[in-house]
Amino acid sequence: MFKRNMKTSIFVTVLILCSFVWSAAIAKDSIKLYQVSSGVLKFDKGWLTAMRDVGKILEFPVAMYIIDHPRGLLLYDTGMNAAVSDGKCESYWGKGLCSAFMPIQRRDEVIDKWLEKFGYSVDDVKYVVTSHMHLDHAGNMEMFPKAVHVLQKAELKAAWWPEKFQRAAFVLKDYDNARDFNYLQLDGDFDLFGDGSVVVLDTKGHTQGHQSLMVKLKNTGTLFLAGDAVYTPENEAGVIPGITWNTYESMKSIDRLKMLRDSHQGSIWYSHGIDQYAEHKHDTYYD
Ligand SMILES: [Zn+2]
Q1: Of 20, 130, 106, 120, residue with least CA distance to 73
Q2: Which of 16, 98, 102, 256 has the smallest number of Cβ neighbours within 10 A?
Q3: Which homologous superfamily is 32-279 in?
Q4: pTM over cut 0.70
């Protein structure tokens, strides 16, 4: 009897192990990742790289991601609000923010149009992971009332009551109707599907609850979608980011992403990196 039970339990254990390996392999095999941009922002590079290139006005991409995982479609950031499109910035952001950030966004560069372009609809989106709640990253959260919104609890609190010195970049009307959405309120890292393929990483510093996303792709390798934790390659090389809630935490998060990048032999994808964005493909997916 004992022997038979042993045999059965060994068989079950092997079966469970196989199914874990199999499900992880399936997930990794079939993840598709699209990198797109919510138009561009035109501002002083010194805002991104402290004491470097101050006064240099450039056009920066505003990266966002559509990730098709076997267990659901997710977004990493939703870009600038649709109302900012086609030169209509002032009626939504107001004169001060529009002249500071100078957004140039066509309506067809808003996240819902990108989803349509790749054959999805806003209702297909199961999770919205928002790096942080600044105006160029959380602008279209309210387009996804049915999705689960994945955010750090610290960021949610900061967005509704930002520090005075950080207030300008939070546009309350981007999310004032999103108070009763379904939130996955995190306090640190989180493996979204439990298979290690999409992992939210605590990278506070740029804001109080900033988070990045690690995505494991079969052919492309492991990507670290940095959000504003690493704006540009200069930040990766050690230049302090221009705008931060906490510079010390910000530099610690950059180091954390670099260490993870090295241990996973992956790469860091910036939120506002001009050259890197230009080198990437945007009309199809990475897998
Ligand atoms: Zn940004």
Answers
A1: 120
A2: 16
A3: Ribonuclease Z/Hydroxyacylglutathione hydrolase-like (3.60.15.10)
A4: yes
